[in-house]
UniProtKB/TrEMBL annotation:
The modification N6-(pyridoxal phosphate)lysine is found at residue 179. The lineage of its organism: Bacteria, Bacillati, Bacillota, Bacilli, Bacillales. Its cofactor is pyridoxal 5'-phosphate. GO terms for biological process: polysaccharide biosynthetic process. Belongs to the DegT/DnrJ/EryC1 family. It comes from Metabacillus arenae. This is Aminotransferase class I/II-fold pyridoxal phosphate-dependent enzyme.
Length: 368
């Protein structure tokens, strides 16, 4: 926390706005929209809820297909199942690690042949890195399919100077406890379509008809963000840039200390982009490093250092067994990244001393 959170929480208490609506909610939405340069935003209880609302707004339902990045957290695709639709997974691009435009094109061509286009494409910006948005937007425009940009991990990132999360028909963010800024739990759905966000606000508040009594014609959800948490979010947004700077510094230190070790490859930053470096991630080539990533994980764990393997691709998850998958080429990039990738401790409050300890431990485990 930065300090102002408590002030805004106190304001909520003093004015008795202890509800999933109120002045902080309104201001948080406006401030996020302004920051991103989009027309409107709706604050919700989680990033997952924001994706679910986006799919509802696009009328995704049973029998529909939705394309989704495979290398991501399960929350990117769960709402597809909530809607009874079918997820089709798209491999990663070797440079960005995010959705491969090449695999996406294959998937579109095949969908056209089958006569069933997807209702939406969920593009994820992993670990703070933007996907190749020019290529992806151009393909989606060509096939006339809307994009939901899952920017849960990429608030503060830019692609060609444009904020991450502002490229699709809808963008979504997460303010879960582990994200670059947090409300403990929360999310945001953004769009240039003010009418659609208005509708999202209606759906997120149980879809109550404008009648003098409780009348409901549509299926709604209880997805609004608390006014107290929105206060926390407002204070966090004030220090976002500081957090991005800190995460980038953490990356730089890891890179300076470990970047020259044979077999270690850090996630690159795409040209003309600025990643928020939410997590510092690297891959290990066992033939050069001498140990597989799972052994490195174990050694770190024994030293009480919490690292994580890269997301297990969704097309390999038992939950999505049988789902269609489009690899980048013959080789599946996401599977390679999963088999060799590790996320290093990257918290904004990480001290120099703790980072040195992680670096020393990695060097030792590689016999350096
Ligand atoms: C890529 C991605 N998408 C979606 C989500 C879902 O966000 P939330 O946890 O706020 O529901 C997360 C994080 O949890 C995420 O990392």
């Amino acid at each position: 926390m930065s300090g102002n959170e408590q002030k805004y929480i106190n304001e909520a208490f003093e004015t008795n706005w202890i509800a999933p609506l109120g002045p902080h909610v309104d201001l948080f939405e406006k401030e996020i929209a302004r920051f991103l340069g989009v027309n409107d935003a709706v604050a919700v209880s989680s990033g997952t809820a924001a994706i679910h609302l986006a799919l509802s707004l696009l009328d995704v339902k049973k029998g529909d297909k939705v394309f989704c990045s495979t290398l991501t957290f399960v929350a990117s695709a769960n709402p597809i199942l909530y809607q009874g639709a079918e997820p089709i997974f798209i491999d990663s691009d070797p440079e960005s690690w995010n959705m491969s435009p090449q695999a996406l094109e294959k998937a579109f061509k095949n969908a056209l042949l089958e006569g069933k286009m997807p209702k939406a494409v969920i593009v994820v910006n992993l670990y703070g890195q933007s996907a190749k948005m020019d290529e992806i937007v151009s393909l989606c425009n060509q096939y006339d399919v809307p994009i939901i940009e899952d920017a849960a991990e990429s608030l503060g990132t830019t692609y060609k100077s444009k904020p991450s999360g502002s490229f699709g028909k809808y963008g979504i963010f997460s303010f879960n406890g582990n994200k670059i800024i947090t409300t403990s739990g929360g999310g945001m759905l953004v769009s240039n379509d003010v009418e659609a966000i208005h509708r999202a606000r209606f759906l997120a508040a149980q879809a109550k008809d404008p009648a003098p009594y409780y009348q409901h014609s549509k299926l709604g959800y209880n997805y609004r963000l608390s006014n107290i948490l929105a206060g926390v979010g407002r204070a966090q947004l004030e220090i976002l840039e500081e957090r991005v700077r800190k995460r980038r510094e953490i990356f730089e230190t890891y890179y300076e200390e470990l970047g020259n070790i044979p077999g270690l490859f850090f996630m690159k930053e795409l040209e003309n982009t600025r990643s928020n470096r939410w997590l510092t991630v690297l891959t290990l080539d066992e033939r050069l490093s001498g140990i597989p990533v799972t052994v490195l994980m174990k050694i770190l764990e024994e030293e009480n250092i919490e690292a994580r393997l890269v997301w297990k691709p969704l097309h390999l998850q038992p939950l999505f067994e049988g789902a269609k998958y489009y690899p980048h080429e013959a080789d599946s990039i996401s599977e390679q990244l999963f088999n060799t990738g590790i996320c290093l401790p990257s918290g904004s409050n990480m001290s120099e001393k703790s980072q040195d300890r992680v670096i020393d431990c990695i060097k030792k485990s590689l016999n350096l």
